[in-house]
Amino acid sequence: MRPSGRNLSDLRTVSIETNVTKHAEGSCLIKIGDTQVLCTASIEDRTPPFLRNTGLGWVTAEYGMLPRATNTRNRREAASGKQTGRTVEIQRLIGRSLRAGIDRSALGERQITVDCDVLQADGGTRCAAITGGWVALRLAVNKLLKAGDVVSDPIVDHVAAVSCGIYAGQPVLDLDYAEDSVAGVDGNFIMLGTARLVEVQMSAEGATFSRDEMSSLLDLAQAGVASLIDAQKAAI
Protein backbone atom coordinates (compact mmCIF):
# COMPACT_ATOMS: atom_id res chain seq x y z
CA MET A 1 0.00 0.00 0.00
CA ARG A 2 1.35 3.43 -0.96
CA PRO A 3 1.27 6.06 1.83
CA SER A 4 -1.29 8.06 -0.16
CA GLY A 5 -3.46 5.02 -0.83
CA ARG A 6 -2.98 5.39 -4.59
CA ASN A 7 -2.65 2.48 -6.97
CA LEU A 8 0.83 1.85 -8.37
CA SER A 9 -0.08 3.52 -11.67
CA ASP A 10 -2.01 6.50 -10.26
CA LEU A 11 -0.93 10.12 -10.60
CA ARG A 12 -1.68 12.50 -7.79
CA THR A 13 -4.50 14.97 -8.42
CA VAL A 14 -3.40 17.48 -11.08
CA SER A 15 -4.72 21.01 -11.54
CA ILE A 16 -3.41 23.81 -13.75
CA GLU A 17 -4.75 27.36 -13.32
CA THR A 18 -3.72 29.76 -16.09
CA ASN A 19 -3.19 33.55 -16.22
CA VAL A 20 -2.52 33.80 -12.50
CA THR A 21 -0.22 36.84 -12.71
CA LYS A 22 -0.88 40.24 -14.27
CA HIS A 23 2.36 41.11 -16.02
CA ALA A 24 3.88 37.92 -17.44
CA GLU A 25 3.06 37.04 -21.04
CA GLY A 26 2.20 33.53 -19.88
CA SER A 27 1.59 32.14 -16.41
CA CYS A 28 0.08 29.22 -14.54
CA LEU A 29 -0.09 27.66 -11.11
CA ILE A 30 0.33 23.91 -11.35
CA LYS A 31 -0.60 21.67 -8.44
CA ILE A 32 0.32 18.00 -8.43
CA GLY A 33 -0.83 16.61 -5.13
CA ASP A 34 0.65 18.89 -2.48
CA THR A 35 3.41 20.16 -4.79
CA GLN A 36 2.66 23.66 -6.09
CA VAL A 37 4.75 25.57 -8.64
CA LEU A 38 4.13 29.04 -10.05
CA CYS A 39 5.36 29.22 -13.65
CA THR A 40 5.70 32.48 -15.62
CA ALA A 41 7.01 33.06 -19.15
CA SER A 42 8.57 36.40 -20.13
CA ILE A 43 9.34 37.46 -23.71
CA GLU A 44 12.36 39.63 -24.49
CA ASP A 45 13.40 40.97 -27.91
CA ARG A 46 16.97 39.82 -27.47
CA THR A 47 18.96 36.63 -27.53
CA PRO A 48 22.14 35.49 -25.77
CA PRO A 49 25.28 36.81 -27.50
CA PHE A 50 26.15 33.42 -28.99
CA LEU A 51 22.89 33.49 -31.00
CA ARG A 52 23.11 37.06 -32.26
CA ASN A 53 22.43 37.37 -36.02
CA THR A 54 21.65 33.65 -36.35
CA GLY A 55 17.89 34.02 -36.73
CA LEU A 56 17.39 31.57 -33.86
CA GLY A 57 15.47 32.18 -30.67
CA TRP A 58 16.12 30.81 -27.20
CA VAL A 59 14.11 29.38 -24.34
CA THR A 60 15.70 29.27 -20.91
CA ALA A 61 14.51 28.73 -17.35
CA GLU A 62 15.13 29.73 -13.78
CA TYR A 63 14.04 27.68 -10.76
CA GLY A 64 13.78 28.41 -7.08
CA MET A 65 12.05 27.35 -3.89
CA LEU A 66 10.46 29.62 -1.30
CA PRO A 67 12.06 29.30 2.15
CA ARG A 68 9.06 27.40 3.59
CA ALA A 69 8.27 25.32 0.54
CA THR A 70 9.53 22.38 2.62
CA ASN A 71 8.88 21.19 6.16
CA THR A 72 11.83 23.21 7.49
CA ARG A 73 12.91 26.69 6.42
CA ASN A 74 15.64 26.90 3.81
CA ARG A 75 17.71 30.05 3.60
CA ARG A 76 17.13 32.11 0.46
CA GLU A 77 19.88 31.50 -2.05
CA ALA A 78 20.13 35.24 -2.64
CA ALA A 79 21.12 35.63 1.01
CA SER A 80 24.10 33.34 0.53
CA GLY A 81 25.08 35.02 -2.72
CA LYS A 82 24.99 31.94 -4.94
CA GLN A 83 22.72 29.20 -6.21
CA THR A 84 23.12 25.64 -5.05
CA GLY A 85 24.27 22.96 -7.47
CA ARG A 86 20.80 21.39 -7.27
CA THR A 87 19.12 24.63 -8.38
CA VAL A 88 21.50 25.10 -11.31
CA GLU A 89 21.03 21.48 -12.42
CA ILE A 90 17.24 21.69 -12.25
CA GLN A 91 16.89 24.96 -14.15
CA ARG A 92 19.19 23.69 -16.88
CA LEU A 93 17.02 20.57 -17.11
CA ILE A 94 13.86 22.68 -17.42
CA GLY A 95 15.41 24.82 -20.16
CA ARG A 96 16.66 21.80 -22.15
CA SER A 97 13.29 20.11 -21.83
CA LEU A 98 11.25 23.09 -23.03
CA ARG A 99 13.59 23.75 -25.96
CA ALA A 100 12.90 20.20 -27.17
CA GLY A 101 9.36 21.29 -28.03
CA ILE A 102 10.34 24.52 -29.82
CA ASP A 103 11.29 25.38 -33.40
CA ARG A 104 13.85 28.05 -32.60
CA SER A 105 13.99 29.39 -36.14
CA ALA A 106 10.23 30.01 -36.08
CA LEU A 107 10.61 31.80 -32.75
CA GLY A 108 12.99 34.32 -34.31
CA GLU A 109 15.66 36.27 -32.48
CA ARG A 110 13.93 36.61 -29.13
CA GLN A 111 14.26 34.92 -25.77
CA ILE A 112 11.54 33.47 -23.57
CA THR A 113 12.51 32.96 -19.93
CA VAL A 114 10.36 30.57 -17.92
CA ASP A 115 10.55 31.18 -14.18
CA CYS A 116 9.49 28.28 -11.96
CA ASP A 117 9.00 29.12 -8.29
CA VAL A 118 8.12 26.29 -5.92
CA LEU A 119 5.51 27.48 -3.43
CA GLN A 120 5.16 24.09 -1.76
CA ALA A 121 7.20 20.93 -2.23
CA ASP A 122 6.02 17.36 -1.77
CA GLY A 123 8.13 15.55 -4.34
CA GLY A 124 8.39 15.95 -8.11
CA THR A 125 9.02 19.70 -8.18
CA ARG A 126 11.20 19.60 -11.30
CA CYS A 127 8.61 17.51 -13.14
CA ALA A 128 5.82 19.90 -12.12
CA ALA A 129 7.99 22.84 -13.21
CA ILE A 130 8.53 21.35 -16.67
CA THR A 131 4.87 20.45 -17.13
CA GLY A 132 3.62 23.83 -15.90
CA GLY A 133 6.47 25.68 -17.60
CA TRP A 134 5.27 24.37 -20.96
CA VAL A 135 1.79 25.79 -20.30
CA ALA A 136 3.23 29.22 -19.46
CA LEU A 137 5.40 29.02 -22.59
CA ARG A 138 2.39 28.04 -24.72
CA LEU A 139 0.39 31.03 -23.44
CA ALA A 140 3.28 33.42 -24.11
CA VAL A 141 3.72 32.13 -27.66
CA ASN A 142 -0.02 32.49 -28.22
CA LYS A 143 0.40 36.22 -27.60
CA LEU A 144 3.19 36.38 -30.16
CA LEU A 145 0.97 34.64 -32.70
CA LYS A 146 -2.01 36.88 -31.94
CA ALA A 147 0.11 40.01 -32.36
CA GLY A 148 1.57 38.72 -35.63
CA ASP A 149 5.10 38.83 -34.23
CA VAL A 150 5.73 35.28 -35.44
CA VAL A 151 4.46 33.85 -38.72
CA SER A 152 4.25 30.17 -37.81
CA ASP A 153 3.78 28.49 -34.43
CA PRO A 154 7.21 27.90 -32.83
CA ILE A 155 5.83 25.22 -30.52
CA VAL A 156 6.01 21.88 -32.28
CA ASP A 157 4.91 19.57 -29.46
CA HIS A 158 3.87 19.29 -25.83
CA VAL A 159 6.53 18.65 -23.19
CA ALA A 160 5.71 17.08 -19.82
CA ALA A 161 7.56 15.20 -17.10
CA VAL A 162 6.80 12.71 -14.36
CA SER A 163 8.72 10.82 -11.71
CA CYS A 164 8.70 7.06 -11.27
CA GLY A 165 10.54 4.78 -8.90
CA ILE A 166 10.81 1.49 -7.07
CA TYR A 167 9.02 1.84 -3.74
CA ALA A 168 8.70 -1.12 -1.38
CA GLY A 169 9.91 -3.34 -4.23
CA GLN A 170 7.19 -2.16 -6.66
CA PRO A 171 7.40 0.18 -9.68
CA VAL A 172 5.23 3.22 -8.90
CA LEU A 173 4.21 6.38 -10.76
CA ASP A 174 4.56 9.96 -9.50
CA LEU A 175 6.38 9.69 -6.19
CA ASP A 176 5.43 12.07 -3.40
CA TYR A 177 7.96 12.98 -0.72
CA ALA A 178 7.04 10.09 1.58
CA GLU A 179 7.90 7.66 -1.22
CA ASP A 180 10.75 9.59 -2.81
CA SER A 181 12.65 9.87 0.48
CA VAL A 182 12.86 6.07 0.89
CA ALA A 183 12.59 4.80 -2.71
CA GLY A 184 15.15 2.22 -3.77
CA VAL A 185 15.21 3.64 -7.31
CA ASP A 186 14.23 7.15 -8.36
CA GLY A 187 13.74 8.43 -11.91
CA ASN A 188 12.46 11.46 -13.82
CA PHE A 189 11.12 11.03 -17.34
CA ILE A 190 10.65 13.95 -19.74
CA MET A 191 8.72 13.27 -22.93
CA LEU A 192 7.11 14.95 -25.89
CA GLY A 193 3.47 14.52 -26.82
CA THR A 194 4.60 11.93 -29.36
CA ALA A 195 6.05 9.92 -26.43
CA ARG A 196 9.59 10.51 -27.71
CA LEU A 197 12.02 10.86 -24.83
CA VAL A 198 13.70 14.17 -24.09
CA GLU A 199 15.65 13.08 -21.03
CA VAL A 200 15.71 10.31 -18.45
CA GLN A 201 17.32 10.73 -15.02
CA MET A 202 17.53 7.48 -13.08
CA SER A 203 19.60 6.40 -10.13
CA ALA A 204 19.78 3.61 -7.60
CA GLU A 205 19.14 4.97 -4.12
CA GLY A 206 20.35 1.97 -2.15
CA ALA A 207 19.07 -0.76 -4.48
CA THR A 208 20.07 -1.52 -8.04
CA PHE A 209 17.48 -2.11 -10.75
CA SER A 210 17.12 -4.47 -13.68
CA ARG A 211 16.47 -3.69 -17.32
CA ASP A 212 12.96 -5.15 -16.95
CA GLU A 213 12.27 -2.86 -14.00
CA MET A 214 13.47 0.12 -16.02
CA SER A 215 11.09 -0.88 -18.82
CA SER A 216 8.24 -1.07 -16.30
CA LEU A 217 9.05 2.42 -15.07
CA LEU A 218 9.19 3.71 -18.63
CA ASP A 219 5.74 2.24 -19.34
CA LEU A 220 4.36 3.92 -16.22
CA ALA A 221 5.99 7.20 -17.19
CA GLN A 222 4.55 7.14 -20.71
CA ALA A 223 1.03 6.69 -19.37
CA GLY A 224 1.59 9.38 -16.74
CA VAL A 225 2.94 11.90 -19.25
CA ALA A 226 -0.05 11.24 -21.52
CA SER A 227 -2.37 12.15 -18.63
CA LEU A 228 -0.36 15.29 -17.86
CA ILE A 229 -0.57 16.36 -21.50
CA ASP A 230 -4.33 15.94 -21.32
CA ALA A 231 -4.26 18.30 -18.33
CA GLN A 232 -2.16 20.79 -20.32
CA LYS A 233 -4.64 20.68 -23.19
CA ALA A 234 -7.55 21.24 -20.82
CA ALA A 235 -5.78 24.20 -19.21
CA ILE A 236 -5.16 26.07 -22.45
TrEMBL record:
The EC number(s) attached to this protein equal 2.7.7.56
| Stretches assigned to the Exoribonuclease phosphorolytic domain | 11-140, 159-223
Listed binding positions for phosphate are: R86, G124, T125, R126
The UniProt record lists the keyword tRNA processing: yes
What is the top-level taxon of the source organism?
Bacteria
Q: Keyword annotations for this protein?
A: Nucleotidyltransferase, RNA-binding, rRNA processing, Transferase, tRNA processing, tRNA-binding
- Gene Ontology process terms (BP): rRNA 3'-end processing; rRNA catabolic process; tRNA processing
What Pfam families has UniProt attached to this entry? RNase_PH, RNase_PH_C
The entry lists its GO molecular-function terms as: 3'-5'-RNA exonuclease activity; tRNA binding; tRNA nucleotidyltransferase activity
Top-level EC class, please? Answer: transferase
Relate the assembly described in the record. Homohexameric ring arranged as a trimer of dimers.
PANTHER family annotated for this entry?
EXOSOME COMPLEX COMPONENT, EXOSOME COMPLEX COMPONENT RRP41
Task of the protein: Phosphorolytic 3'-5' exoribonuclease that plays an important role in tRNA 3'-end maturation. Removes nucleotide residues following the 3'-CCA terminus of tRNAs; can also add nucleotides to the ends of RNA molecules by using nucleoside diphosphates as substrates, but this may not be physiologically important. Probably plays a role in initiation of 16S rRNA degradation (leading to ribosome degradation) during starvation.
Q: What is this protein called?
A: Ribonuclease PH
- Which species is this UniProt entry from? Roseicitreum antarcticum
Q: What is the lineage of its organism?
A: Bacteria, Pseudomonadati, Pseudomonadota, Alphaproteobacteria, Rhodobacterales
